[in-house]
Amino acid sequence: MENVLLALLLSLIAGLSTSIGSFTAFFMKKPNPKFISYIMGFSAGVMILISFVELLQTSINTLGFVMAIVFFFIGMIIMFLIDILISHEYEFEDSIEVLINNNGQCKPHLHYGHRHRRRNHNRGEKKDVNLVKTSIFIFFGVFIHNFPEGMATFIGTLTEVKLGVVLTIAIALHNIPEGIAVAVPIYACTLDKKKAFKWSFISGMSEPLGALVTWLILFPFINDYVLSAMLGAVAGIMIYISLDELLPMSRSLAKEHYSIIGIITGMFIMSLSLAIL
């Protein structure tokens, strides 16, 4: 029971980091994209290494290679289905650009990366994306994607407290920019800091909600086999998030080598901590 409460607490901490992002957004004249690029790369490096070295390896030791890999791909498929079924179009730098360049006006022209859905006039011309609708997409996208992260934190902590703490740190680091991405367009539209903070906070609470659902529904059925299967699936989820979310965003923020430096640093520190602990 003690580990359950700790697991719920760690998922809450990870979720609250989105609020930290929204809070700091209001005091930054212009966020440093190079620093954010490095942090996103760092988080991806930690997640990738911990997924392959700890999560998947533990699953393989219990289930065998074939079954562990099956659950690994099940985790990736789950995230892929969420990706294509839920609209979650957001780019960190676009949100910042809206606040800085449009003086709170709700008529920006937003450009997106690989998730951009173009909308055309009858003549085929591009239309500006409505910022209110964009804000809703961002909120629901972050909310949906935080849910499995909360599950991952909970399961990781039940397996090993050290693993849960590492996942919490990695998830919290990349949730801070996500909190900024949620808060900035809402603030740009409403000029209401409280409302922007509120919705960023709610999006982060999806993480402890995911942990709570895992506890209430799955906890009675958890044994060594089920736990190892879930670890394999969580590894797939973490790899998908790293490759599809964190790294593309990291690369888009700074064209220099900040992204790969962050990845290397994250992997090195994670490897060092595993060796020491």
Structure characterization notes:
This protein has 277 residues and is an all-alpha fold. It has one domain (2-116, 124-276). Helix content is 79%, strand content 0%. The chain is built from ten helices and no strands. It has helices at 2-25, 33-63, 65-85, 92-101, 131-159, 161-190, 193-204, 206-218, 224-253, 258-276.
Biggest β-sheet strands, sense, barrel: none
Estimate the strand proportion. under 5%
The overall pLDDT, averaged over residues, is: 76
Specify the helix fraction band: over 70%
Features:
277 residues, 0% strand, globular
Summarize the structure.
The protein is mainly alpha-helical.
What's the topology here?
Elements: H1 2-25, H2 33-63, H3 65-85, H4 92-101, H5 131-159, H6 161-190, H7 193-204, H8 206-218, H9 224-253, H10 258-276
Helix pairs in contact: 1-5, 1-6, 1-7, 1-8, 2-3, 2-6, 2-9, 2-10, 3-9, 4-6, 5-6, 5-7, 5-8, 5-9, 6-7
